[in-house]
């Protein structure tokens, strides 16, 4: 047999071996969704515990002394948010429940200060371990957004790797799970992450493969494209580039979990007659009824608008394998059933270790659009598993 055929066979065997590894469906739950009104209100009891292998409660924060800060003690403790979330395991004992520390609003400075001091970092590790055990979670998800950025220092990359290594030493003997959510941007990954170290010590890595484009830019762009488009000035802003980069830098493909957004990014068009990809914009689209944040609409809000309003134009971008829609001067780059199926198939074909959704409450969990409860999550699962 010639050498090229041997190498090809070895590569196929390696992929087949990776494909037999654990297949994860990781689901984030934004705990503040409990305060939304009407059909937007979402509580732990709205979670279908059989659709996810791992469910992650977002978020808790840090204190300067290395203790864990409850961002919303009323919801988490007084309303038994932690307990109600963990009680999902009573319905499905196979479900793993985790808690995430950090998030966008938490920033980077607190993590940077703690992890830059070896003694304080050791205290932080012990406090995180005790927190996870005391509240009955199966593990911890690290959402430091992002090391060496947003107020962090140049030593963050090494210090984050040290934090992960020390947490693994503490968590692993107790059978606790350790994961992290990481930026999809290639520049951010190079600055923030010691990829071989993270891959060696994390149980899985949640790639936040979304927010590639948004209303901070002056032209329309897709939130979570699979591939580059002809109008991209940066051809690295897509899922394929992110996954390839992490693999090239030494990540274990069986630990990479592909993130899929349950929301779209919105823009206000400069002209309602110029509404293609790369069209000039003047800012964010108006806030949604439930999400209440300019520039973002949950999938349930998008499908409701499309169902109840006339005048929508919807296009499926076959190059990037995601749809976009417009009405008057509103433009939305988002995901639908077809695009999440493509992403699930991509994760399966590339033997990745899982798929992840951010976040459960943004899907059509009430079936208001008549596609079925959790229509996107179910389509993603069917394509990946």
Describe the structure.
The protein is built from 13 helices and 15 strands. It is of the alpha/beta class. It has a single domain (3-262, 336-384), classed as TIM Barrel (Alpha-Beta Barrel), CATH 3.20.20.80. Strands 1-2-4-5-6-7-8-15 form an 8-stranded parallel barrel, surrounded by 7 helices. Strand 2 and strand 3 (68-69) form a beta hairpin. Helix 6 crosses helix 7 and helix 12 (337-349) packs parallel to helix 13 (375-384). The longest helix is centred in the first third of the chain and has 17 residues, at 3-19.
Précis, in short:
The chain has 385 residues and is of the alpha/beta class.
Q: How many distinct beta strands?
A: 15
Could you report the average pLDDT, rounded to the nearest whole number?
95
Tally of DSSP helical segments: 13
- How does the overall form come out from the CA principal axes? globular
CATH topology: TIM Barrel
CATH architecture: Alpha-Beta Barrel
Oligomer: single chain
- Main β-sheet, spatial strand arrangement: 1-2-4-5-6-7-8-15
Q: Domains counted in the coordinates: how many?
A: 1
What CATH first level would be assigned? Alpha Beta
Largest pleated sheet? 8 strands, parallel, barrel
Query: Approximately what portion of the residues adopt beta-strand conformation?
Result: 15-25%
Question: How far from one another are the termini?
Answer: 34 Å
Topology as a string of helices (H) and strands (E): HEEEHHHEHHEHEHHEHEEEEHEEEHEH
CATH superfamily grouping: Glycosidases
Helix content: 25-40%
Structural class: alpha/beta
Give the C-alpha Rg: 21 Å
Unreliable stretches covering 5 or more consecutive residues: 4-10, 16-20
Pfam family, one: Glyco_hydro_18
GO molecular function: chitin binding; endochitinase activity
Signal peptide: 1-21
Domain GH18: 23-385
């Amino acid at each position: 047999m010639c050498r090229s055929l041997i190498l090809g066979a070895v590569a196929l065997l390696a992929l087949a071996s990776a494909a037999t590894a654990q297949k994860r469906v990781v689901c984030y739950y934004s705990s503040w969704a409990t305060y939304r009104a009407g059909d937007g209100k979402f509580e732990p009891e709205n979670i279908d515990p059989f659709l996810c292998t791992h469910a992650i409660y977002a978020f808790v924060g840090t204190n300067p002394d290395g203790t864990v800060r409850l961002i919303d003690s009323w919801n988490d403790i007084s309303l038994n948010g932690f307990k109600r979330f963990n009680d999902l395991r009573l319905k499905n004992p196979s479900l793993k429940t985790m808690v995430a520390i950090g998030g966008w609003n938490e920033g980077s400075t607190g993590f940077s200060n703690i992890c830059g001091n070896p003694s304080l970092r050791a205290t932080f590790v012990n406090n995180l371990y005790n927190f996870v055990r005391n509240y009955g979670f199966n593990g911890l998800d690290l959402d430091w957004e992002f090391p060496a950025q947003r107020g962090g220092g140049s030593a963050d990359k090494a210090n984050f790797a040290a934090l992960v290594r020390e947490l693994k030493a503490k968590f692993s003997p107790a059978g606790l799970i350790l994961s992290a959510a990481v930026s999809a941007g290639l520049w951010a990954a190079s600055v923030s992450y010691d990829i071989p170290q993270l891959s060696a010590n994390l149980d899985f890595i949640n790639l936040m493969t979304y927010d590639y484009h948004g209303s901070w830019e002056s032209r329309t762009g897709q939130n979570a494209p699979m591939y580059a488009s002809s109008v991209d000035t940066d051809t690295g802003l897509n899922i394929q580039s992110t996954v390839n980069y992490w693999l090239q830098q030494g990540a274990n493909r069986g630990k990479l979990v592909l993130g899929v957004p349950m929301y779209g990014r919105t823009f206000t068009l400069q002209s309602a007659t110029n509404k293609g990809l790369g069209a000039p914009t003047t800012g964010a689209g108006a806030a949604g009824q439930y999400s209440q944040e300019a520039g973002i609409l949950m999938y349930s809000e998008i499908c409701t608008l499309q169902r109840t309003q006339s005048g929508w134009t919807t296009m499926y971008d076959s190059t990037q394998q995601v749809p976009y829609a417009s009405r008057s001067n509103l433009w939305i780059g988002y995901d639908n059933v077809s695009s999440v199926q493509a992403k699930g198939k991509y994760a399966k074909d590339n033997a990745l270790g899982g798929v992840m959704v951010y976040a459960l409450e943004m899907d059509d969990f009430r079936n208001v659009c008549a596609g079925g409860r959790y229509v996107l999550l179910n389509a993603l699962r069917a394509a990946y598993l």
